[in-house]
């Protein structure tokens, strides 16, 4: 186990109210049953760890007003994300570019609607199940946007695996460019619209104020993840973390890198707040009607829920407090053998 330099982690200041969906317990019961049925988790140890990481609690904080079906779907998707993420960080796929490429290709085929063959195992069946249920709730336009964002994340994972294979720590600019996709932020933010049953109008979505809101909220989330998850990733020997990237690139004390990331959170929230004012001005310029204003602002509130909710969950979950190390996660690479 690697030595970890002494470091004090700050409590990021995210100035939005904490919220919790009242149907959390329903989602928790559902998603554990779902993950067991699909064999994403097997055995008492894996089930206990899964329950402690509490993805139902995560989505109850992220989507506090979602209906039961959408909340359960979000819990299953986030459970799948984290099982998949562990494959890329801790199992064989994460250090084998060929396996990673084949996994991404198979994921793309599933999202495009391809039927599963006899080689498909838990990871592919889980993705197909989420795909089919999402399409029941979503418009064709929303699904296209979501699936495109998700495929972008799968492609970015190849960059991460290649870095890990070569022992290449990315520079800060490259890391920031790729991080939102590494953390599955764009497709996760798409779920805000599914939960709100409202799609942001195209002219607003493409605007500078709304794009800024989404971008800055995403980076607040990933910076929060990199602060709270720092010890976990140091223990795992992982370096795709902005604190570690700054630490290595600048040859500064680890504590200084921590403070830089914490300051980045505050700065990005300031930009987010300024963009909210710009968005209201844009509504007037476009002559946006009250229904579209209200729906869009609900989605902006959804971004605030994400920033605060992720922080609250990160401090509650066992995922960061009780980390699993390389070699302690069962690999699903058998699904990738043609």
TrEMBL record:
Its cofactor is Mg(2+). Keywords: Lyase, Magnesium, Metal-binding. Gene3D superfamilies: Farnesyl Diphosphate Synthase (1.10.600.10). It holds the Pfam family Terpene_syn_C_2. It comes from the Bacteria. Its EC number is 4.2.3.-. It is an enzyme of class 4 (lyase). One of its GO terms (molecular function) is metal ion binding. SUPFAM superfamilies: Terpenoid synthases. InterPro entries: Isoprenoid_synthase_dom_sf (IPR008949), Terpene_cyclase-like_2 (IPR034686). Belongs to the terpene synthase family. This is Terpene synthase.
